[in-house]
Specification:
The structure is a single chain. This protein has 85 residues and is mainly alpha-helical. It contains three helices and two strands, in the order E-E-H-H-H. The protein has a two-stranded antiparallel sheet.
């Protein structure tokens, strides 16, 4: 018990979210890498399927996709993998 709340046991290789970053207790970054790769692939596939001009695609990449990698929302991962948000 910490401050009246029960603590949870977390397996060393099971990813969990901490401040929006997917971590494991053994500090393996593989899960965060997979998470960002999935986000990037989905974003690229979406932009390829659009009818945007080259300039519009450039703007989307630089104003949405790249900043999205820097501050990616953890809820996207949870929704994609059917986890509770």
């Amino acid at each position: 018990m910490v401050h009246g709340q029960a603590t949870q046991f977390i397996l060393s290789n099971k990813p969990f979210a901490y401040l929006g970053v997917r971590l494991t207790m053994n500090l393996n970054w593989k899960h965060k890498h997979i998470h960002l790769t999935d986000y990037l692939k989905g974003s690229i596939e979406g932009s390829r399927a659009s009818h945007a001009s080259s300039r519009q695609a450039h703007d989307v990449i630089h104003k949405a996709i790249i900043p999205g990698l820097a501050c990616h929302d953890e809820s996207w991962y949870q929704l994609k993998h059917g986890l509770q948000v």
